Amino acid sequence: MKVLNFGSLNLDYTYKVSHIVREGETILANDVSMNLGGKGFNQSVALARAGISCYHAGLVGEEGLEFYDACETFGIKTDYIKTVTGRCGHTVIQVDDNGQNSIVLFGGANLKNSKEYVDEVLKNFDTGDIILLQNEINELPYIIDQAFAKGMTIVFNPSPYDDRLEECDLGKVSVFVLNETEGQQMTGMTTPATIVAALDAFFSNARIMLTLGEGGCIYHHGDEELYQPAFSVKAVDTTAAGDTFTGYFVAGLCRKQPMREILLTASKAAALTVTKPGAAQSIPFMSEVELFNND
Ligand code: ADP
C-alpha cells in the first residue's frame, strides 16, 4: 500500500517586530527566519517521522528548489513534486514582542495545479492506496473525484476551512481529521458531541477524527466512539499540533493498528510538538514518542 500526500509546500518568512505594522507605517524587523512549511509539507514530515515514507505531490515555484533536498532528507519521496514558473506559496509572518502574530498567505504555486498534473500523479496509485489532502491547494474537487474513482482511501483534513470546500464531493471521503473550529464551520454545531453527530449524519460511512486541542480528541465510526485525553505538557508553541496528529494518525492507519493505539500515539506525538517552537522542526520522531511516558 502506498501513501500519497497531495498538498501545499510553503516558504514561511517570519519577521520579529516590536509591534505588528500599522496601516501606512514602515518599521524595522529585529530578526528574520525562513522555514519550509505548509500544512501539506508538515503532514508529510509527520508521516516520515512516524516511519511512513509517503510520496508528496505538489508544486513549487522557481525559488522553492530546496524542497526537493529537504524532503529527501526528511525521508519524503519527491518523485511527483514539480516546479512551475512563478512564485512558491509563501507566508509573511510578523511576530511581535508579546508573541502575537499576523500572517499574509500567498498561494503561489500551490494554486497552479492542473487536471493534467493531477492525472499524471494519480496514474501511479491504485485501489487501497491512501491519499491525504488538506485545503491549501486548488483542484481539490477533481483530486477527490479521481482518487475515489480509483478506489483510493481518501483522508481529508479540511484545513483551513473555506467556501471552496462546498465544490468538493465530501461524501467520497473515507476519513475526516479536523479540529473543533473546522468542525463548527462544517456543521454549524458548537459542541464536540453535536459536531460529531452532525458529521456522522452527513457522512455516515466516513470515520471521523475530531481533535480538541488541550481537550484531547474523539474518534467516531458507526457504533464505535473513542475518547483520548490530551497529554499534559508545558505548551511552548502549538503550531503544527494538528499536522503532527494527522501524520501520526495516518501512519497508524497504514499499519492497521488498533484505533485506541493510534489515538494514543498521535496524541503523544502532538503533545511533544507543542513543547517545542516552530512547525516542521518541532515534530517528534517515533523513537521520541515511544519514550514519552506521561500517563
Ligand atoms: P490544530 O493544531 O489543527 O488546531 P488541535 O489544537 O485540536 O489541532 O490539536 C491537535 C491535537 O494535538 C489534540 O487532539 C491534542 O492531542 C494535541 N494538543 C494540542 N494542543 C495541546 C496542548 N496544549 N497540550 C497537549 N496536547 C495538545
Structural write-up:
- The mean pLDDT is 96.
- This protein has a single domain, classed as UDP-N-acetylmuramoyl-L-alanine:D-glutamate ligase, CATH 3.40.1190.20.
- It has helices at 39-49, 66-74, 115-122, 140-149, 180-187, 192-202, 241-254, 259-274, 286-291; strands at 3-6, 10-16, 31-37, 55-60, 77-83, 89-95, 101-106, 130-134, 153-157, 175-179, 207-211, 217-221, 224-228.
- Helix content is 32%, strand content 25%.
- The longest helix has 16 residues, at 259-274.
- The radius of gyration is 19 Å and the shape is globular.
- Helix 1 (39-49) crosses helix 7.
- Helix 4 (140-149) links the parallel strand 8 and strand 9 (153-157).
- Strands 5-4-1-8-9-10-11-12-13 form a nine-stranded mixed beta sheet, sandwiched between helices. It has a four-stranded mixed beta sheet with strand order 3-2-6-7.
- The chain has 295 residues and is an alpha/beta fold.
- The chain has nine helices and 13 strands.
- The structure holds adenosine-5'-diphosphate (ADP).
